[in-house]
Amino acid sequence: MSQPAIAADTKPWRREGARAFISVRGVTKRFDDFTAVSDVDLDIYKGELFCLLGESGCGKSTLLRMLAGFEQPTTGAITIDGEDMARVPPDRRPTNMMFQSYALFPHMSVEKNVAYGLLREGLAKSEAYHRAGEMLRMVKLEKLARRKPDQLSGGQRQRVALARALVKRPKLLLLDEPLGALDKKLREETQFELIKIQETLGVTFIVVTHDQDEAMTLATRIGVMKDGKIEQIGEPREIYETPNSRFVADFIGSVNLFEGTVEAVAPDMMRIETQGLGPVLLPPQGGLTRGQQVWGAVRPERFALSRSKPENTPNAWQGVVEEMGYIGHMSQYRIRLANGVLIRASQSNRLRDEDPISWDEQVWISVQPSAFRVLTQ
Amino acid sequence: MRGWFLPLAVAFGFIFLYAPIISLVVFSFNESRLVTVWGGFSTRWYGELLRDRQILGAAWVSLQVAFASATLATIIGTLGAFVLTRFSSFTGRLLLTGMITAPLVMPEVITGLSLLLLFVSMEMTLGWPAGRGLPTIIIAHTTFCAAFVAVIAQSRLRSMDESLEEAARDLGAGPVRVFFDITLPVIAPALVAGWLLAFTLSLDDLVIASFVSGPGASTLPMVIFSKVRLGVSPDINALATIIIGFVLVAVVIAGWLMRRGMRQGE
């Protein structure tokens, strides 16, 4: 598939033969008999904001610590900008890290914290403090330069940590749950600020997070991890719309899964027989053969609810509203079909004065063929 | 039942612990030469104390020993604690863990005797230390004080956020630099507390000092002990009161520093 030139420039991973800036090859990390990271291959391109997403204990932090040099891979190799990192200690790597706890030095002022890395580089004191001041201005903390870390709020500390990690202009910035300790409102504001800073400086970011919304908002691409392996790598939209496994489909957003088998494959249509929904018609998907066990995945918002039978799709069923939750911008429904199957659906509330479908109503629930994603694992 | 039992138990406990000390302090202000007979308030014995060359000399020896051994013990104990908390596996780790705390539970008589034997055999084979005196007491006190410092420093190092050290590494500081720039300042309050504790322990010690001291190097507890054997004189009460004051101040400061250090570590 050919892409417009501009997209290829901002999305180098789509371009055939593009040179990876960071490459992780067959990296495994074992602690005694526990395998934290298992045979991971990963290419990250210059200027990316890459998110490693997964539940705690999935190995994402260990992978990040190997990039920073705090852990050595048991097997495999990591190269950054063409340089093998195997024997390079953390203090000589072209990377900087922003720690989950922020790790601000408690006995140093904000200014000293930020200048510390520059002074270790051998920069003159005046130059180091000048650049630290510039960086503090960028994160809007120049007025608090003389404070000690324990005199700052959580959000301010987060920005000091970011300034300290960025001041050396690393080739790669590693961020371990950078927004994890902030409250919801501040987190959302900071997300966009982080993107802005990343675009301004052009530094490659790798962010570790367990928060899927955060990953979706921040990332150019997401790597979903589970049990030390990368399950899927892709742009946020790819991960959401075309997950490659039930795990990814369920981990990112919520999903209805229907187990079934492929009944018929035609050039323009395909039919799968599902246990929950009976026969479902959908556009053909490559690599499927008749009789194969598959799972049909549908996002809740892709279902349409109506009081009369919809005409525009062959996939429609009748059911009863068992639960309904009004959230404001949308409503969530649980619809019980006649055969007892429970379906999660959601509707956005676009009109103020509509007559909403409510508890115990008989409704038609329908879905467009293209809304189905067929998963094989 | 709970209404009166708890206060009574507390009162009894305090009396049991502190009545002897209070009576000692009170009798240090006694005018009478007889220790057990109250003859009115006076600071006479404090004055006599200041004219006693022997006691002043011993106090000076004790202070020198306490200062030197507390300082050495802090250095050794801190290094030991650092190795035990930051290096997860090396040959002899278990042995070192055990050995570093052994002096805490070892009877002082055994520590003193073994050190004496060591010094004597060293003198015979190496020619050093020539005789026993200030240096041998300092070495002896350093060995058991280092154990106390190591325990305090270890607990502080464990509670310290290790990502502070990693952050400094990440920003371009080598391991030695990190120790002096980050680790040491962060655990400093605990080390001061450890130093003060070592200082008071050294000041207190009678048994080990008696084993390893030589002529001309009697510590204060040794002098007091030998005086008391000839009968308790009231100036000893005055001296004891002063020592209690010193120890009290040091222990309070040490405790305060340790608590502050712990709070900062959280």
From TrEMBL, chain A:
Keywords: ATP-binding, Cell inner membrane, Cell membrane, Membrane, Nucleotide-binding, Translocase, Transport. Its EC number is 7.6.2.11. The keyword Translocase applies. One of its GO terms (molecular function) is ATP binding. The keyword Transferase does not apply. Residues 22-252 form the ABC transporter domain. It catalyses: ATP + H2O + polyamine-[polyamine-binding protein]Side 1 = ADP + phosphate + polyamineSide 2 + [polyamine-binding protein]Side 1. InterPro entries: AAA+_ATPase, ABC_SmlMolc_Importer, ABC_transporter-like_ATP-bd, ABC_transporter-like_CS, Mo/tungstate-bd_C_term_dom, P-loop_NTPase, PotA-like, Transp-assoc_OB_typ2. GO terms for biological process: putrescine transport. It comes from the Bacteria. One of its GO terms (cellular component) is ATP-binding cassette (ABC) transporter complex. It is an enzyme of class 7 (translocase). Pfam families: ABC_tran, TOBE_2. Part of the ABC transporter complex PotABCD involved in spermidine/putrescine import. Responsible for energy coupling to the transport system. Belongs to the ABC transporter superfamily. Spermidine/putrescine importer (TC 3.A.1.11.1) family. PANTHER family: PUTRESCINE TRANSPORT ATP-BINDING PROTEIN POTG, SPERMIDINE/PUTRESCINE IMPORT ATP-BINDING PROTEIN POTA. The complex is composed of two ATP-binding proteins (PotA), two transmembrane proteins (PotB and PotC) and a solute-binding protein (PotD). This is Spermidine/putrescine import ATP-binding protein PotA. It comes from Roseinatronobacter thiooxidans. The gene is potA.
Automatic annotation (TrEMBL), chain B:
Pfam families: BPD_transp_1. One of its GO terms (biological process) is transmembrane transport. It is a multi-pass membrane protein. The chain crosses the membrane at residues 5-29, 55-82, 94-122, 134-157, 178-200, 206-226, 238-258. Its main location: membrane. One of its GO terms (cellular component) is plasma membrane. Residues 59-254 form the ABC transmembrane type-1 domain. Keywords: Cell membrane, Membrane, Transmembrane, Transmembrane helix, Transport. It comes from the Bacteria. PROSITE patterns: ABC_TM1 (PS50928). InterPro entries: Bact_Polyamine_Transport, MetI-like, MetI-like_sf. It is found in: Cell membrane. Belongs to the binding-protein-dependent transport system permease family. CysTW subfamily. This is Putrescine transport system permease protein. It comes from Roseinatronobacter thiooxidans.
